Amino acid sequence: MDDCMALILAAGQGVRMRSAIPKVLHSLCGKPIISYIISAVKDAGVKKCVVVTGPGGESIKDVLGDGLDYVYQAERLGTGHAVMMARHYLTSDHKYALVLPGDVPLIKNTTLRCLYDTTREGGYAAVVLTAIMNDPKGYGRIIRDSQGNVTAIVEDKDADESQKAIKEVNSAIYCFDANVLNGALDMIDNNNAQHEYYLTDVLAAIANQGLKVGAVTVEQPEEVIGINDRVQLARAEMLLRREIAVRWMTEGVTIIDPTSVYIDTDVEIGQDTVIYPGNVLEHGTRIGRQCILYPNSRLSNAIIGDRVTIQSSVIIDSEVGDDTTVGPFAYLRPGTRIGKGTRIGDFVEIKNSIIGDGTKVPHLCYVGDADVGKKVNFGCGSVVVNYDGVRKYRTIVKDNAFIGCNANLVSPVEVEENAYIAAGSTITDKVPAGALAIARAKQVVKEGWVAKKFKKGTEEE
């Protein structure tokens, strides 16, 4: 498709979204709506992509970045007007032009390729992508002649009763002969209910010149649904989530209840992994083989090895090695790297730390800004005290160290190999290899103290 460019219309205000965020930037399974359209266009083989933005559209360019061309539509005077703003691209080296809105995220690259092939091979001046809908309300209706060629598209607001009965609708996705489109833009006006320049009127203008206008009908109408409000956004999310779940189940992943699992589009999952209900797998997450994700975990940009078990935990911007167990109710914060065969237990929080292979942090612990070696044991309630109120410091715990229950390691501090920390200690100095560190007040027992206290209280009354 080197001789085809794409023009994506993204200047719509999206007032029904009731949002300060441009409609096409709302998130759908972890990506902006418009990014799906751009991916479909590029995967179809189109290299030149032009995006039409309007007031407030600077954020669209910020999100999409370089590699695309941008055109600004200062006044929103309709889809035909939006194409007029980019008409100088229609006189370039590209013979064909795909034109599509920025809010149809379920469109497939294979469909766009079919649309292009039909235009080129059939000698059409324009081809419109259509769908058959049981409830066509709100969509433009396709008008055909006796030979099946498209003669016009009538917008819903302008349609009469007989036209409203037509179930074949316009998807707002087209492939044009670029030169023909450029010339036809001069033939349309805004004499309609909306007082806008309709791109649909271009097809009638082309047909009136005796040129061929065809149509390609999608098999699944859901592929061309647009998103104009949050209800439609939720529907698209549901359809895309179902598609993602089916894809992974086909690849050998067990998903107990696909309707209750939320998997972003770029997540990767290994074979024989089992995912229970309530899991949320967000952008950038990669999960290995034979893992078990029990209910109600959230993983965001998390890299999970093979044979890992996770229970009701949150893992963000972190890595977990093979054969490790996490949770329940663990929180791995950004910058954390967990080794192989480790145990991160219940109500454990780890932040910006490296935890070596075979280390156990079983329960009720906080480890922050620490480099922990292999086969270290953290007792219940132990804490790495990494913050003095102004700065954060790192602690080093080397291989085979044993940290007793309710011990505090006050950073920066180092615990060397095979050292032991007595329960209840607050460690502020280096602990040598093989040493036992005890840092707590000596226990004092006063026999008979309770009886004396209460006897004294009685005398005072």
TrEMBL record:
Mg(2+) binds at residues 103, 228. The active site is at 363 (proton acceptor). It is found in: Cytoplasm. GO terms for biological process: cell morphogenesis; cell wall organization; lipid A biosynthetic process; peptidoglycan biosynthetic process; regulation of cell shape; UDP-N-acetylglucosamine biosynthetic process. InterPro entries: Bifunctional_GlmU, GlmU-like, GlmU_C_LbH, Hexapep, Hexapep_transf_CS, NTP_transferase_dom, Nucleotide-diphossugar_trans, Trimer_LpxA-like_sf. Its EC number is 2.7.7.23, 2.3.1.157. This is Bifunctional protein GlmU.
